[in-house]
Give the backbone structure.
Amino acid sequence: FMDNVAAQIADYKLEVKQNILLAILSGIYSMNTEGDSIANLAAKEFIEKALEISMDGAKIAMFLCNIGVFL
């Protein structure tokens, strides 16, 4: 019984973390990068650096920690 509960909790936590990551990525890619304002230039630079990171899980985790996201 407890193994089943533990598995359900683990699945729930994984789903929550995945939703957080998807929300972060949605926010990043919805940033306005057009124009010359400081905010737009910063968003453009941030996205360019984010794209340089390969899809290696360890590198993504390090990137998220560097921007203050702890999963």
The mean pLDDT is 77. The longest helix spans residues 2-29.
